[in-house]
Amino acid sequence: MPPRTTISKPAARRMSLYLRALESRLAHDDPGEGHISSRELGLAVGVADAQVRKDLAVVGAAGQPGVGYRLKELHDGVRRAMGLQRPWRAVLVGVGNIGRALLAYPRFGEEGFELVAVFDRDAGLVGRKVAGHAVQSMAALVEGVRRSGAQLGIVAVPPDQAQDVADRLVEAGVRGVLNFAPRPLRLPPGVAVVAVDFTEALERLAFETSLRRQGSQRQKGA
Amino acid sequence: MPPRTTISKPAARRMSLYLRALESRLAHDDPGEGHISSRELGLAVGVADAQVRKDLAVVGAAGQPGVGYRLKELHDGVRRAMGLQRPWRAVLVGVGNIGRALLAYPRFGEEGFELVAVFDRDAGLVGRKVAGHAVQSMAALVEGVRRSGAQLGIVAVPPDQAQDVADRLVEAGVRGVLNFAPRPLRLPPGVAVVAVDFTEALERLAFETSLRRQGSQRQKGA
DNA sequence: GATTGTGAAGAGCTTCACAGCT
DNA sequence: AGCTGTGAAGCTCTTCACAATC
What we know:
homodimer, alpha/beta, 7-stranded mixed β-sheet, two-stranded antiparallel ribbon, 9 strands, 43% helix, globular, DNA-binding
């Protein structure tokens, strides 16, 4: 049963939040037989209850009036809707600070993401192991990625190398790219790109903070 | 002259992109007397030209029909509209991999952001210098932040400490928080929060990638 | 001829509010 | 009583299209 409606971009963002709220709840609820209402879930992630119900309707989860949604069922439903029902294979390019932070991320691999290869330009790193992953040379990238069958590539290199690395990842068959370089990537349609941009985040923070000078503060959830 | 209209959240996101496109352009245009059209700028950041014009109208930038916008004037206008006309003082809490990545970020400080204090829980780090910044103990946090007069705080600690650290930052007078922990923060209204969440980004990537199975690919810019 | 500025139309997203179920 | 599911209303953002300008 495919989702009734497509999941919008804002909804996809919220789904990640729901997932984590559900997981934290499941951790405290061993049998996993508990329920959660749209209001509770909304409170946990800073979203209105009606919004939660609309989102969940899209993933095809059935709530029980008067009770709420079954935790386990809901968790599975959201994961399936987000394309996380089976694991994704990812490669990491760039083992600088950001790359290391990702390697150290316990969550990586824990649920649905498997890091199958790691590359770096630095000859001093190539051949060594970082967080259990043998670092390969950039020369080995295209062949290595192709052999690994990875669908996702993570670009954690300096900005001037980002486009080139991304192009080679796509050449090697990757279908989605996570870009940590503060530079927009141009990739063919059919390849998904998601950017994580510290500078943008900082600037957004400056903007939002300067908005909140004394005076009319409308706020909603978080 | 305050902006005619308020800048929407999506618009604020794009402003950061405009800024970087303009800066990269200014770097290749030493006198800074060049012009750029809404179409060119839109192409650089993956946005429709009409959208660019609407955004720029909000910052109060005046374009010249048939020619475009003056680079330097536009750059200044966007920075002002984003609240970047004068520098922000920020503190960093947590000198793990993410914290280090931020410290290494050349852009940090280069334009508009000054890192005025750095804290970490690890006794082995306290007192040492990392990337030119003396690491202070967590015990010194509230007093240290208050004395520094920082308006922004960056939370780069493990998730279980994030809320506590954020609370103390707010207690110390911080008015905006950049959160790298994969956990939503609850802070009083009047304090801005921007989250950078790797897990969310990865899951969004999985979702967008799974959408792009063969078939109808609508795409626009990037 | 090229490009801006913008009203109006269009698309998308969120909130409201309530009938219906347990 | 509590909660879901959802049509309808309301709001926000984006795209269109074109007169005005250089």
